[in-house]
Amino acid sequence: MEKVATPFIPAREKHPRYFIKALSYLEQVPMLDWYQRRVLQSVVTATTNPRLLKEFPNLTHREVNDLAQLSFIALKNILEAGEQSSEVSGALLHEALNKAAARETPPAGTSSITEEPLPSTSCCTSIVRKLEISSQYPTIAARSFSRDDFFKVLCQSRERSRCVLEGHVRTAGLDAAHIFPFSLLDHNKNGYRLTWTFIVILLGEDLRETLVENLVSETLGVHNPANGLLLGKGGHE
């Protein structure tokens, strides 16, 4: 299958030394449970933000803990938003998470995710400042978002377990194309600020803006088929 060109390339590919140092520092941070280390390993591995890799060893232990909690919240919000916009998306993601959990059983005696006070946007300010992020939230029209009729048809087809790119019925092992959870673009949704704080830390400002440009059309707030299929194709490949 032909690989789709994407700007979202993990920073570790160009900065392997930063990546190794970040992972090494993560192993030294105390008071993190097994789950927190796993999610932060994933963040460090997947981030497209070279600044995050470079500055990760300079984060305080408290900031590392805050980043772990922020990651849990944001990923949960994205998962739930995906469930609202597409039953297929939610079901597939739950299935993938369950399989991953079965493969990666924590060591005996490991407790579940640490229950700590959830981080506020203010407690993540120090991380944002260290990464020299000037704009924490994307510029998106603060009003109701809509999809045109054709886009709705695509979503309906997808929820009937049909791939919106290839048109055939989804079979075992074939993922439906991913459609971004558009409810995360709504300022009034719970977790909006924390989720976008995580996204800008993970992607960096430039790629955060690239993501927003691909999500929202020039008419500000109207999601068109081109936007959905552009992201859908990238996720599908």
Helices and strands in order:
Blueprint: H1 16-28, H2 34-46, H3 50-55, H4 61-85, H5 87-103, H6 125-130, E1 146-147, H7 149-159, H8 192-203, H9 205-215, E2 222-223, H10 225-236
Parallel strand pairs: 1-2
Helix pairs in contact: 1-2, 2-4, 4-5, 4-8, 8-9
Protein name: HNH nuclease domain-containing protein
Domain HNH nuclease: 163-233
Q: What key attributes describe this structure?
A:
HNH nuclease domain-containing protein; single chain; disordered C terminus; 2% strand; HNH_nuc; two-stranded parallel ribbon; 237 residues
Question: Would you mind describing this structure in some detail?
Answer:
There is one protein chain. This protein has 237 residues and is mainly α. 53% of the residues lie in helices and 2% in strands. It has one domain. It has helices at 16-28, 34-46, 50-55, 61-85, 87-103, 125-130, 149-159, 192-203, 205-215, 225-236; strands at residues 146-147, 222-223. Strands 1-2 form a two-stranded parallel ribbon. Helix 1 (16-28) packs antiparallel against helix 2. Residues 84-94, 111-115, 171-178 and 232-237 have low confidence and may be disordered. InterPro entries: HNH_nuc. Residues 163-233 form the HNH nuclease domain. This is HNH nuclease domain-containing protein.
